[in-house]
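PROTEIN DESIGN WORKSHEET
SECTION A - STRUCTURE
LENGTH: 233
TOKENS:
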């Protein structure tokens, strides 16, 4: 019901992209609360209706599992939980009848040890439908654009370029225009890629120090956004 209301708000304000809450089906991947595991199939008719509304209003939907969904964790129970959660997210988008541009965005995760190999192993555990929905994004601490592009090539995945994260973590020193172009090239012809743009918090805290620049501001800097468009057009 709330998602229907959100879609109405988005349409009235001409907003054509929305990241859904991953908890739309709460506890649907919880390893012990198995009574919640059937939510998606039990609500297929309602999900189909909401998906049809999103398509009618031309609102692109996606999900972005949080920091605890780590497909390449060193801990097997965390990897198991990540696989289960990604399957739920994919099943939601499928039940809504959404096209391939409705994606599940994921950070690669842990950088410990053979992190990339663990990610590939975790990816191979996913069903075909979950693989088809998954895209990966560069982060602000561990996996920069270069590493994400290399991993995407191994798994045949699309890449979401995040400019803010790129400014925070770019060990390969890739120009932002080149980084964007290489990320866009991972998307098939006919699909509209997804890009993340945000601005850092610039408020001053105790002692007159700036907030952590990795933190996201509530709104974007319009001047920085204009410069990004000019540089990458």
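SECTION B - SEQUENCE
RESIDUE ASSIGNMENT:
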């Amino acid at each position: 019901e709330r998602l229907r209301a959100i879609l109405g708000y988005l349409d009235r304000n001409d907003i054509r992209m929305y990241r859904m809450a991953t908890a739309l089906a709460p506890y649907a991947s919880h390893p012990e609360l198995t009574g919640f595991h059937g939510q998606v199939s039990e609500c297929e008719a309602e999900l189909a209706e909401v998906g049809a509304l999103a398509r009618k209003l031309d609102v692109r939907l996606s999900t972005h599992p949080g920091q605890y969904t780590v497909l390449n964790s060193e801990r097997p129970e965390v990897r198991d939980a990540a696989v289960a959660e990604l399957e739920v997210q994919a099943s939601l988008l499928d039940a809504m009848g959404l096209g391939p541009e409705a994606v599940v965005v994921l950070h690669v995760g842990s950088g410990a040890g053979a992190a990339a190999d663990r990610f590939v192993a975790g990816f191979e555990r996913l069903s075909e439908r979950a693989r088809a929905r998954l895209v990966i994004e560069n982060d602000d601490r561990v996996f920069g654009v270069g590493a994400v592009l290399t991993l995407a090539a191994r798994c045949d995945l699309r890449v979401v370029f995040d400019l803010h994260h790129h400014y925070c973590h770019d060990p390969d020193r890739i120009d932002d225009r080149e980084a964007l172009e290489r990320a866009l090239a991972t998307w098939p012809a006919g699909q509209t890629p997804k890009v993340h743009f945000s601005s850092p918090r610039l408020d001053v805290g105790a002692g007159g120090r700036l907030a952590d620049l990795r933190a996201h501001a509530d709104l974007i800097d319009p001047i920085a956004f204009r410069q990004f468009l000019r540089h990458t057009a």
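SECTION C - NOTES
The CA atoms of residues 101 and 192 lie 7 Å apart.
The longest strand covers residues 158-162.
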